[in-house]
Amino acid sequence: MESNKDEADKCLDIAERCVQQGDKAKAEKFVQKAMKLYPSKRCRELLETVREMEVGRSKENSKTETSRNSEYPEPSNDEATTSSAEYTQEQIEAVKRIRKCKNYYEILGVNKTSSESELKKAYRKLALAFHPDKNKAPGAGEAFKAIGSAYAVLSNTEKKRQYDLYGDEDSAPRSRRTQRSGFYEYEDPSHGFQGDMTAEEIFNMFFGGGMPGSSVYVRRGGRWTRSGAGAGHAQEHQQHSQEQGGFGALFQLLPILFLILMSLFSSLFVNDPLYSFDHTHKYNVGRRTTNIKVTYYVKESFHQEFTGSLRKLERQIEDDFLSHLKSRCYQEKSYKENLLWQARYSGSQNLFKKAQNYPTPSCVRLEEIYAAS
User: Which has the least CB within 10 A, 1, 79, 182, 246?
Assistant: First the structure.
């Protein structure tokens, strides 16, 4: 049941992003799917929000009903340049480029060694070009979302580390052609590599509420509402953007500097631990507990410095080891379940085989300990 709850939460996350983008049909689809997997209060509240959304695309909906069983081709170059002059051929080509990208680095046009300032510069340029209020080309909204996801992951040290270790072509946003519109949408059901902020939230953080004179979806009190961005506020932000950017970078560094100073001070007053699970130059004498045979290491001066009960110490060592092993086992199972969920969602046989063969050594070790005890 808990695995269903995780999948239901992922569906609700996708539905919330669809609400933010004004896509009622897709949002309702994922909410209904979440209700079937794991009914919850969050499901009911979000379903009520979806049903209260106004459908602002009546013409597109009427076209959907008459062409539900046929797939539209992608617009030709002539159609793109003459469709109400809302978008240009250059914008269409830019959307195609984003859609063809295989990973987050390619989306932003950076590499693994790019600095934080280079990431921000690349994001600012792309976000302004692909924001839905400026770029009306088919798929621009999903490209904008992909750009936001790329920045959210690569700008976070821990998420970037995990992405570099486990990310591959299956982790990047995929695209598919939908029957509803005939254009391409990105299918990005988490894949384990998403930031903690939505694309609009990241954009608002950089540009203070959206494009000049535009409006964005803002979540207030558990509901998504449309909010306008004033021209005066946008102009004021443009005048102070460089100054705010400098102060923002400084404030981001303050917690890191504080932690470094605290670790330096604490190292002066805190004694070394009695044992370590890793063999190091300081902890180079190997020992094993008498109960479940956990290997640990102590310093050469252990017998002179330790005067307590060895039995109690080994019990503490075994408890710490089991706690660490349980945590690693949970992470391994979660990653394997996530791969299986991706395989079922995408229908990829290669991904399904990868999930089946994914090793869980911590879980195996844990089962061996419980079987022997």
Answer: 1
8-state DSSP, 75: P
Cα angle: 171, vertex 149, 17; to 5 degrees: 105
Q: What is the mean pLDDT of residues 226-235?
A: 47
Is 39 within 8 Å of 216 (Cβ atoms)?
no
Token pair of 139, please?
């798929």
- pLDDT at 326 > cutoff 90: yes
* Reported pTM: 0.34
| Alpha-carbon separation of residue 313 from 209, 290, 307, 308 (angstroms) | 56, 11, 11, 8
Tell me the per-residue pLDDT of 95-141, one tens digit each, with 9 for 90 and over. 899 988 888 899 999 998 889 889 999 998 898 888 888 888 888 88
Distance CA 6, CA 16 (A): 15
Cα dist from 169 to 69, 112, 166, 216, 278, whole Å: 30, 16, 10, 31, 34
Query: What is the rounded distance in angstroms from the CA atom of residue 95 to the CA atom of residue 108?
Result: 13
Instruction: Please check the confidence at residue 349 and state whether its pLDDT lies above 80.
Output: yes
pLDDT in tens, 268-285: 666 778 889 889 998 999
Find out whether 121 and 133 touch, Cβ atoms under 8 Å.
Answer: no
**Structure-token pair, residue 357:** 């063969």
Burial environment of residue 247 by CB neighbours within 10 A (0 to 12, 13 to 18, 19 or more): exposed
Minimum mean pLDDT among 56-70, 102-116, 200-214, 251-265: which range?
56-70
Cα–Cα separations (whole angstroms), residue 269 to 256, 266, 275, 294, 301: 21, 5, 18, 29, 19
The CB-based long-range contact list for 157-162 (8 Å cut-off, 24+ gap) reads 159/193, 159/195, 162/192, 162/193
Q: Which of 102, 93, 81 is nearest to 129 (CA)?
A: 93
Q: Which CA distances in Å does 300 have to 213, 269, 321? A: 70, 21, 22
